[in-house]
Amino acid sequence: MSIDHAVAMFGRQAEACEELGSALYAALLVRAAEDIRDGGPCADAIAGYEDAPGPDAIALRLLGGVHALVLTGRATELAVHYPSAGGVFDPGAADRAWAAFRATVAAELPWIRDWMTRPPQTNEVGRANLLITGLLHTLARHPFPVRVFELGSSAGLNLLADRFRYESAGFAHGSEDSPVLLPDAWRGTPPAWLTGPQPAVAFTERRGCDPNPIDPVSPEGSLALRAYVWADQPARAARLNGALRLAATIPPRVEPVGAAEFLTRVEPREGALTVVWHSVMRQYVPAGEWARVETELRRLAAASTAAAPFAHIAFEPRRVGGEHRFRLTVRDGADFELERVLAEAMPHGLPAWAL
């Protein structure tokens, strides 16, 4: 049963990669699932993790560990198939790419085994597209300087969302010379509050939390972040690299604590909009701790006033019918129980579409 579970998890991740435009990873994961079933090197790599639940993302851990080897020049035969290393993936040569992948896992098993202990932390910069959308919607009601507190920040790159450039038909926001460009931000017509006059965005405080934060300016931290970007998606890599350059000049402050403990030290402040936001992290938080997070969010909402407003902005997966949809929601401290669903988007944040 353990092997069957692992094979199923790899198969589902292969389908997700295919749907999200990574033909390379889809091809590799289909074959890795077979290798696990046959007791090959990939089975050795994930030994002990066969029963891990979906949020542990065991398939992505394996891919990330191998990608790190490619990026550091330790897997030259595989690198020729990885666009992130200057290679080219030819679907017609998928078997050759797989042979090089399998050989890399076998040759670097101790490295891979160590990498498997680390939870994936992509810090997907594209998700800032939804966070800034929710913030602009909120600022229309509360035109104050912004204090932003992020839960599950990873390296804290989305704490720099105000420094990114967002573009779409009928919509542009942020400095044109930003090193982070998020083009084609919207599918169809963007929401009305984005296409009209936009409120000023001024961050006066930006802090985040993560149980295991990554230092984005360290060689180890930047490698981990780059390794978890899928190797055949150069636009995502470009956004990440731009955000890493920004982080070198504006180091994000991320505290090594859980979300509930972090929020106990946050209070609304007069003359500022206090925002708690997060993106695709709730699934990694145990239910008991998330209940404490909700208690803290309600405390902040109860303490907010017209002069010291509070808002909760979230971009998280929701089950809608039989599907998982990634939805942007906003709760205002003045009417906290009224959750506004503002938009949906692809899991990596681009494009989004209005509801």
Structural account:
The chain contains 13 helices and eleven strands. The chain is globular. Helix 2 packs across helix 6 (94-107) and helix 4 packs across helix 10. The model has no long low-confidence stretch (mean pLDDT 96). It is an alpha/beta fold and 355 residues long.
Summed up:
The protein is an alpha/beta fold. The chain has helices at 2-19, 23-37, 41-45, 58-71, 76-79, 94-107, 109-115, 128-139, 192-195, 219-227, 234-249, 259-263, 287-303; strands at residues 146-150, 165-168, 171-173, 181-182, 203-209, 253-255, 273-279, 310-320, 323-332, 340-345, 352-354.
Largest sheet report: 8 strands, mixed
Taken from the alpha-carbon principal axes, the silhouette is globular
Alpha-beta classification: alpha/beta
* Beta strand %: 15-25%
The separation of the N and C termini measures 41 Å
Which H/E pattern describes the elements?
A: HHHHHHHHEEEEHEHHEHEHEEEE
The largest beta-sheet arranges its strands as 6-5-1-7-8-9-10-11
CA gyration radius, whole angstroms:
21 Å
Mean of pLDDT: 96
Number of strands: 11
- Low-pLDDT residue intervals, each spanning 5 or more residues: none
The percent range for helix content is 25-40%
Count of helices?
Answer: 13
Lay out the secondary structure.
Blueprint: H1 2-19, H2 23-37, H3 41-45, H4 58-71, H5 76-79, H6 94-107, H7 109-115, H8 128-139, E1 146-150, E2 165-168, E3 171-173, E4 181-182, H9 192-195, E5 203-209, H10 219-227, H11 234-249, E6 253-255, H12 259-263, E7 273-279, H13 287-303, E8 310-320, E9 323-332, E10 340-345, E11 352-354
Parallel strand pairs: 1-5, 1-7, 2-4, 5-6, 7-8
Antiparallel strand pairs: 2-3, 8-9, 9-10, 10-11
Helix pairs in contact: 1-2, 2-6, 4-10
